[in-house]
Amino acid sequence: MRGIAVFGRSCRVLAGQLPAWGLALGLMLAGWVASQSQVLVFTPHLFRWVEQHYGAEARRRVERLQSLIELHLGDSERDKLRVVNRFFNQVRYDDDDTLWDQKDYWATPFEVLGLNAADCEDYALSKYFTLVSMGVPEERLRVTYVKAVELGVAHMVLAYYPAPDAEPVILDNLIDRIEPATRRTDLVPVYSFNGADLWLSVNRVEGKKVGGSSRIKRWQKFQKKLAQEMGEG
Q1: Of the candidates 196, 51, 189, 92, which has an alpha carbon nearest to the alpha carbon of residue 137?
Q2: Which domains are delineated in the chain?
Q3: Strand, coil or helix: what is 98?
Q4: Residue 188, H or E segment
Q5: Among 58, 45, 55, 36, which Cα is nearest to 233's?
Q6: Which positions ≥6 away from 89 have C-beta within 8 Å?
Q7: Cα–Cα distances in Å, from 204 out to 49, 174, 181?
Q8: What does the pLDDT look like over 16-69, one tens digit per residue?
Q9: What's the pTM?
């Protein structure tokens, strides 16, 4: 994206009642229809698409994500953060040049699990959409661009705000610990966004709202691609 710089780099279910993806969809639509972000829906179209593009093992990885979401729907938000952070941090890191032969590519969670590889933006986006799909309100989540001071590179993380004025905690692929933002002195936030809004960072805790995330065309394009993979677009 240009203008606003995008930095590249680096409720348990009862079996037999409904197809798993159908029950998950019903729960999502009933619980958080106000979300402006695309939720993950595990349709037959999606599983065919994954297997055709990436193979049977990739399909099994997507099935594991589906199971994780269904198993932990009733968990506390903090527990959801932990299981989702751990799930995606197991994926190996590689850069966009290697994975996609592009300088800056935003991979969907299904593309990430297809290759079983990701860069920093892919980790953050995959965690965001998975948590929204588990019922975490999107207003508590912000995809955040930062400067990783020790590495000297631009980087992306996911911030979770337990309350509007609270200090966020940071989900990051560089470390597995989920820590308060003020402890992450190795990160300098630049700007952040979610399904509705866009903020320029004031400090590690606060941001100044500068408009809607519709200004980020790559974000809109990403959600359209995600919907298409699920046969929803």
Answers
A1: 196
A2: 20-229 (3.10.620.30)
A3: helix
A4: strand 187-193
A5: 45
A6: 123, 173, 176
A7: 40, 17, 6
A8: 333 443 444 444 444 444 557 889 999 999 999 999 999 999 999 999 999 999
A9: 0.86
